[in-house]
Specification:
Zn(2+) binds at residues 103, 120, 178. The active site is at residue 198. Keywords: Isomerase, Metal-binding, Zinc. The protein has 2 domains: 11-220, Jelly Rolls (Sandwich), CATH 2.60.120.10; 242-318, Jelly Rolls, CATH 2.60.120.10. The protein is built from 8 helices and 19 strands. The strands form 5 sheets. The protein has a 6-stranded antiparallel sheet with strand order 1-2-5-12-7-10, with no helix packed on it. Strands 14, 15, 16, 17, 18 and 19 form a 6-stranded antiparallel sheet that branches. Strand 16 (271-284) and strand 17 form a beta hairpin. The mean pLDDT is 96. It has 320 residues and is of the alpha+beta class. The longest helix is centred in the middle third of the chain and has 9 residues, at 143-151. It has helices at 21-24, 61-67, 69-73, 75-81, 106-113, 143-151, 155-158, 216-220, and strands spanning 11-19, 35-41, 43-44, 47-48, 87-94, 100-102, 120-127, 132-137, 159-163, 169-172, 178-180, 184-191, 197-200, 242-246, 251-264, 271-284, 287-292, 296-299, 305-318.
């Protein structure tokens, strides 16, 4: 079997807080004015990505993995996770504030939902002036204070409110209370999980006048009430992989590409590239594959050597 860089049909999600920037900023062919998420690469049940290019076009990612687990996932990833693809890649457009929410850790998610937990990171791709995020508590808190703040509608006053700009990165371990603020386009890398506990939704109602479900009690055991630093600083040295996040679930590097880079990779893990600015080409076995801002590409573990050319900002993600 000849392996090659895989792209996927994006899975668009309408959200009460979504908008049109996935089209205007990221070139996505959305047909609605309230698309909040583009799932770029997913094996979440009911939302499995379909391959969009090459010989495997029309085949699902899960079918490809089941047929060639070591070659797609990598020997280390397959040994650790079996045929489960362990990460989920998204772009988000927050026209309005997202709900204040929290994600459970692996142990709690396994016990309650038979799922992975949801450690995640955000790269801010575009930010309107005065855009902000909510992440964690300003001061150490506890369950009693959290519940009291919900009753008095003062939860936001307990949370750290951070103004953000393009290029900022935030790493959110499970248990971190958070909300993406209005006016942001975000690249999100996370464990394969769709488990979210919603704490507060700004008293919004949908088109039918209904509020969205809250999960106040479920969140009690999931929340980390400590003060945590979520922002990540990183180098931006041209034409090399600069470490941004190194955690047990994924490694994310930032590549400021300006020219050409040659890659030689082990067969232990797949690699994913997210083009967050500019455009680039991958040359593999005398074939060129072209990518623009907003594209996401999966490099199977069996693709050991290739080159990358262009002028772009790229996120590089793999598992070690």
């Amino acid at each position: 079997m000849k392996f090659y860089p895989l792209q996927f049909e994006p899975i668009f999600k309408e959200r009460i807080w979504g908008g049109e920037k996935l089209k205007t900023v990221l070139n996505k062919a959305i047909l609605s004015n309230n698309i909040g998420e583009s799932w770029e690469l997913s094996t979440v049940k009911g939302d499995v990505s379909m391959i969009a290019n090459g010989e495997w076009k029309g085949k699902s990612l899960m079918d490809a993995i089941n047929e060639f687990p070591n070659e797609i996932l990598g020997t280390l990833v397959y040994k650790r996770f079996g045929t489960e693809f362990p990460l989920l890649f998204k772009y988000l457009d927050a026209r309005e504030d997202l709900s204040v929410q929290v994600h459970p850790n692996d142990a709690l998610a396994k016990k309650r939902h038979n799922s992975f937990g949801k450690t995640e990171m955000w790269y801010i791709m575009q930010a309107d002036s005065d855009s902000r995020i909510l992440v964690g508590f300003k001061e150490k808190s506890n369950a009693q204070q959290y519940l009291g703040s919900l009753e008095s509608k003062t939860l936001l006053s307990l949370l750290d409110d951070i103004k953000v700009k393009e290029g900022d990165v935030f790493f959110l371990e499970t248990g971190t209370v958070h909300a993406i603020g209005a006016g942001l386009v975000v690249a999100e890398i996370q464990q394969t999980s769709d488990i979210t506990y919603r704490l507060y939704d700004f008293d919004r109602v949908d088109a039918n006048g209904k509020t969205r479900e809250l999960h106040v009690d479920l969140a009690l055991e999931a929340i980390n009430y400590d003060v945590i630093n979520t922002k990540r600083e990183f180098l931006k040295i041209s034409n090399q992989s600069n470490i941004v996040v190194d955690c047990p679930y994924f490694i994310t590097n930032f590549i400021p590409l300006d020219g050409k880079i040659y890659f030689s990779k082990a067969d232990t893990s797949f690699t994913v590239y997210m083009c967050i600015e500019g455009n680039f080409e991958i040359m593999f076995e005398e074939t060129k594959y072209k990518y623009i801002k907003g594209d996401t590409v999966l490099i199977p573990a069996a693709m050991n050597t290739f080159s990358m050319t262009g002028k772009a900002s790229i996120l590089e993600i793999y598992i070690s």
